[in-house]
Amino acid sequence: EFRRFSLERSKPGKFEEFYGLLQHVHKIPNVDVLVGYTDVHGDLLPINNDDNYHKAVSTANPLLRIFIQRKEDADYSAFGTDTMTRKKNVLSNVLRPDNHKKKPHIVISMPQDFRPVSSIIDVDILPETHRRVRLYKYGTDKPLGFYIRDGSSVRVTPHGLEKVPGIFISRLVPGGLAQSTGLLAVNDEVLEVNGIEVSGKSLDQVTDMMIANSRNLIITVRPANQRNNVVRNSRTSGSSGQSTESSLPSSTPNILGNLLQGEEESDEEDIIIEDSGEPQQIPKAAPASESIESLSQIELLHESTQNGFLPSSEMNLNHSAGSISMEYEVPEPGRKSLEEDGTIITL
Amino acid sequence: MRRFLRPGHDPVRERLKRDLFQFNKTVEHGFPHQPSALGYSPFLRLMAIGTRSGAIKLYGAPGVEFMGLHEENNTVMQIHFIPDQCQLVTLLDDNSLHLWSLKQHGGASELLEEHRFTLKGPPGSPPSATQVTAVLPHSSREVLYLGTESGNIFVVELPSFRVLEDRTITPEAVLQRIPEDNCNRRSCELVEALREHPKNPDQILIGYSRGLIVLWDLQNNKATHHFLGSQQLENLYWQRDGSKFISCHYDGSYTQWPVSSDNRQPEPLENTVPYGPFPCKAISKIYWQTTKNGLPYIIFQGGMPRASYGDRHSISVIHGSQQTAFDFTSRVIDFFIIFSSDPAAEFDDPSALVVLAEEELVVIDLKSAGWPAVHPPYLASLHCSAITCSHHVSNIPLKLWERIISAGSKQNIHYSSMPWPIDGGTNIAPDPPQRDLLLTGHEDGTVRFWDASGVCLHLLYKLSTVRVFLTDADPNDNMNTLGEDEWPPLRKVGTFDPYSDDPRLGIQKIYLCKYSGYLAVAGTAGQVLVMELNDEDAEHVVDHAEADLLQDQEGYRWKGHEKLKTRDGPVRFEAGFQPFVLVQCQPPAVVTSLALHSEWKLVAFGTSHGFGLFDHQQKRLVFVKCTLHPSDQLALEGPLSRVKSLKKSLRQSFRRIRRSRVSSRKRRGGSGNASEVQEANAKFDQDALQEMELAPVQRKIEARSAEDSFTGFVRTLYFADTFLRDSSRHCPSLWAGTNGGTVYAFCLRVPPAERRMDEPVRAEQAKEIQLMHRAPVVGILVLDGRSTPLPEPLEVAHDLSKSPDMQGSHQLLVVSEEQFKVFTLPKVSSKLKLKLTALEGCRVRKVTVANFGSCKTDDYSENDLAVLTNLGDIQIISLPFLKLQIRYPCIRKEDVSGIASCVFTKYGQGFYLISPSEFERFSLSTKWLVEPRCVVDVPEVTSNNHVHKSGTENAARKSSPGGCGEDERKSVRLMEHALLNDEKVLKEIQSTLEGGR
Predict the structure, then answer these.
(1) In chain A, where are the structural domains located?
(2) Which residues pair with A118 in a beta bridge?
(3) Cβ B701–A284 below 8 Å, yes or no?
(4) Locate the PB1 domain: which residues (chain A) (predicted)?
(5) Residue B62 lies in a domain
(6) CA–CA dist B163, B146 (Å, integer)
(7) Are B262 and B216 a contacting pair, CB within 8 Å?
(8) Which residue of B699, B822, B829 to mutate against A (max A Cβ within 10 Å)?
(9) Rounded CA separation B452/B14 (Å)
(10) What is the DSSP code (8-state) at residue B223?
């Protein structure tokens, strides 16, 4: 079925309203649908939040083609690049509904609805027995959640095999960030932390290094289980090329540079508050004097200092701004009575 | 970032670095930890102390110090100087003997180990046969007599340690002449004492443990006299003329014996139990000293009535009708008497009694009436009350120095005026470049002022804050007020007193302004005292104020100690630093940071709850700021819950043990369902085992969050006159850094001097910086337009510093445990930083700005940061570009208390505690180096009646240059490590020594 209707381009409104409008226009008020549109390149792209809705409206030239699919039998693979040219495949899928129905329906949103929690990086420059994992830490809602321990590993040296001390992952906290990535496992040997080798460092040193880098932690491990490694065509000739690397650097001189660059750009920014509020004076003191010019408003260098996250993709991809946002939490109104036993701490 | 990883190899800078920085551990101050042996050479006038970790330290005149370390790290049991030589022999508890020599090398003397030797018996003999119990270096300087547990006395040649087997004195030979009824094999077991005849070097007195004493003729190789003691022997001492000797015994008695040619088996002249008639403890050592007036001094250790005074550590001096038992607070290791060493002198004329107790050295002047103590110029007991903090002030103005000394001299009136009697050797070190003070705060509420300018750490003045407060202890309760008829006549001596009346009195922070003489001290119960130096006694009321750091925080209950009660009304203070203001923090938590600005007359203090500013001119609290985060419930409950969890885990582990015991008992019972129980038990054990295997060595990786405990803990406070608000006008400011990585900046308005009393000091918060990495802020510093740190208050006023550049833009340096960051001022924007923890895994523990001068040119010097990390490394980081210059390993990373106790000086030196009683001094600078440099010259031997066959040989040996001075220096530097009898460290030392050779 085709419907044609008009929208005011300058005031597109919210996605919710648009969705309601679509349901109204198609007279399917209680049916869940997926909404998509074709962009200028002919790709079928989804409309499921305010941002991509606004984007879609802005690309209308002047017509905007919108596709609606019933959610139950939607074909998620249809979205993406070259979708329009792959239409055939979509059709063939649709034609074999039995095949399709066996799969359980999992509703998966688009990548921009997520923020990255982890990634495997530098695959092209690392030996395939190693894995470099980047953990992204946002706020305090989810712990990094792993433990490390001392251990020993066997190395090949000019003098033959040698047992050397090493650092290993000893435990993953259930529900923690490390566990949820699936990229780290118990007994993985930690080789580097943010580009710095851990050999020769004590457990406490490595702990401190990881905590100091926790906002953007990059750890290189040798997985205990070597079976899930990426198989590369450069070494194993027969396999079909999953990742095509024509130029595999033999040495890895630029690892550090890459890493540090990445680190630098996502580096933290401290918060500075200027002249916060009224001068703090004790009751005995003279009332706030007129001689001192006092600024009472709080001026934050970063504007996004409200609590919580905005689910928008821009916010999440911008680390510095995103991480600022959880600095100041609204004080909880009902505070429990506090106690302290006055333990003496001598520094 | 990469520039920090690869320090630039600018050759000019590298050369300059060599001229500026150099790491040396120079000298150990204080009292040796766990002393175990004492020796004295009347000839050299040097004293030697051996320790349980195998170190020996020689002391002479102030500044004359030598150190040596036995590689074995075994306890030094005995030290004996070779008569009239620069040599000494030590006996360790592994039965090895070591010969040490003082040799001149490059103009200064050095202590070197020459030979080592372990006595070996015939094959198959028990180890006791050669276990050395007594050592006698013979006055001929050629042989050493070694008494053993088996009763044999071996003779070894010096310095080769060759055993002269034909001269061994066997028990059989001794027993030949003894009458049958006293003669049995057992009477010659264990040689307790060997003493050479004072006039006739061919005779030695041998005392056996069972009481038999024999005078042995070395020429004829036979016993000439027998003395049959009935009591177990402890020690022997010859009278100066050799006509009598005295023996002391296990039952607390001493006996005089005559020696004459007619009676070969004399009866005792006199047998006394000085503290009888009830059973007494042993007298372990005794001296008999003759005087011109005929009344001898009898000085002995122990002998107290067993039941009532058996726990006392005493040394008694009896001289005619005078008798005093000096009562020491710690065990007496050994003692000696300094007396006339001139062999021609007729009498001993003792001048001083030197006692080495476990925790201090006490010297008693025997010449002055009342036998007062002598104030030692070194070996100070730093730990007479536990050290809780230290503060170093460099380059003290002469005026203040003199006033402190004069205040201290008034406290020392009860000391003897006798010059220090142990005065061997010559100090040839150059005079210290400047007057330095080290202030130590103690658990008992005292602050001690030490002269730290030179090699000898010398107590100048002791300040007590106790008098301001009401404590349980009655100040009039004097231990020494014993009645006239008190028996035994005990007298407490020494200063070591580890018992604190009230731990709340403990001093936690000290700040001294050397220009104004203002001193601020802060303690465990939130007390902050501001003091002023007064040269006279005074009685006045201390102004008292309270600072409620919680302000409007509600529902908070302090469960710690109460605040200290103050004394009402005027209090009398002796000359010196007298408190005039007391601020008590509420809640009375320990003060964690303190800053004093003597020009603005302000003192700032911080605790775990917040910080405050007090105007000590107007005696008015300016403001307080609570640093507890609103959502900081966890921070407050943090320490409590941690304690709880520890308790819980302890309880669990006990339960586990109990359960496993129960189950094992059950297993033995073998009931019907035994196999089932067994299985369950096995499973349980396995689980428990797994748990145990996992638990101990793992570390959790978790980002610090705002909820981490103790974020509000104020770590650092700093006053600065800088551009806080705008770049055109500078103003006084106060900066505070917390444990949670927050920096608060307050703008202050201090009225001009002429209206200082009329207008109030105002403060208002101007900035707040939250460091994103949330690490504790350990240092805040403002650099002026020339990137020089702002001078101290009053420094410019005293023309001792260039006035800061107020034209250029100022910069703020914030040092957290993890990073160094430079911000611009007044707009706080990050300029550059150095990440330490993220790159190296170490954290900043201490940081100070130090001035380093070049050893090549006088006119070059620069300011750098001296940093001590939690790994015990010292790093020097340049200002203002934050580049790592150099790194030295300094303290072992396991030595947490050593790292915590470290203080840096303003000129690149530092101190840290290597034991509760010893400071190690180190230097990072090539220019400022304080280390002992001294010469021991062999005095001319004036003796006439001794035949010195080896006199020329001795001179020849002395002139030969010492061998491997470098190695020795290395081993000296490693000495402190030996304090911990750590196998790993031992190996390290050995490998270093071997590597050096």
Answers:
(1) 1-86+103-114, 118-228
(2) A135
(3) no
(4) 1-71
(5) no
(6) 10
(7) no
(8) B699
(9) 31
(10) E
CB contact under 8 A, B559 and A341: yes
Chain A 88-127, residues with CB within 8 Å of chain B CB atoms? none
Q: What is the pLDDT of residues A1-48, one digit of tens each?
A: 777 888 777 777 788 888 888 888 888 888 788 888 887 777 778 888
How many H helices and E strands in chain B? 12, 66
Question: So what's the architecture of A1-86+103-114 in CATH?
Answer: Roll (3.10)
Q: What is the mean pLDDT of residues B834-841?
A: 89
Q: Is the dihedral of CA B290, B295, B301, B302 positive or negative?
A: positive
pLDDT at A292: 36
Of A270, A273, A331, the CB nearest to B772: A270
Q: Do A211 and B623 touch (CB under 8 A)?
A: no
How many helices (H) and strands (E) in chain A? 9, 13
Q: Which long-range contacts (CB under 8 A, 24 or more apart) does B970-973 make?
A: B970/B996, B971/B69, B972/B67, B972/B68, B972/B69, B973/B24, B973/B25
Is the CB of A72 inside 8 Å of chain B's CB atoms?
A: no
- For the record, the structure tokens of B357 come out as 């107790």
Cross-chain Cβ contact A140/B706 below 8 Å = yes
Q: Structure pTM? A: 0.77
Is B972 a member of any domain? Answer: no
Chain A nearest-CA distance from B560, in A, is: 4
Residues of chain B with Cβ-Cβ distance to A323 below 8 Å are 772
Q: Does A302 touch chain B (CB under 8 A)?
A: no
Amino acid residing at B906: K
Whether residue B738 lies inside any domain: the answer is no
DSSP per residue, A30-58: T--EEEEEE-TTS-EEEE-SHHHHHHHHH
Q: Can you spell out the DSSP letters for B668-683?
A: HH--TTHHHHHHHHHH
User: What distance lies between CA B712 and its chain's CA centroid?
Assistant: 34
**Phi, psi at residue B233, to the nearest 5°?**
-85, 140
Mean pLDDT over B658-677 rounds to 43
| Full residue range of the structural domain in which residue B903 is found | 847-874+896-932
CB B891 within 8 A of CB B903: no
CB B359 within 8 A of CB B31: yes
Class of domain A118-228: mainly beta
| Interatomic CA distance for residues A217 and A60, integer angstroms | 42
Neighbours of B280 (CB within 10 A): 24
- B290 touches B298 (CB < 8 A): no
Please tell me which of the candidates B559, B701, B843 has its beta carbon nearest to residue A147: B701
A284 touches chain B (CB under 8 A): yes
pLDDT of residue B635: 42
Mean pLDDT of chain B, nearest integer = 84
In a domain, B914, yes or no: yes
Q: What is the pLDDT of residues A134-144, one digit of tens each?
A: 888 766 566 78
SS3 string of A295-312? CCCCEECCCCCCCCCCCC
The region of weakest confidence among A175-184, B194-203, B891-900 is A175-184
Number of independent structural domains in chain B = 1
Listed by number, the residues of chain B in 900-939 with a beta carbon closer than 8 Å to a beta carbon of chain A are: 900
Q: What is the pLDDT of residues A71-105, one digit of tens each?
A: 776 666 556 544 444 444 444 444 444 444 445 55
CA B130 to chain centroid: 36
Which sign does the torsion angle of CA B567, B571, B575, B578 carry? positive
> Diameter of chain A by CA atoms?
85
Tens digit of each residue's pLDDT (9 = 90 or more) over B683-701:
555 555 555 444 457 888 8
In a mutational test of the A interface, the residue from B556, B634, B701 whose CB has the highest number of chain A CBs within 10 Å is B701
Provide the terminal-to-terminal Cα distance of chain B, rounded to the nearest Å: 41
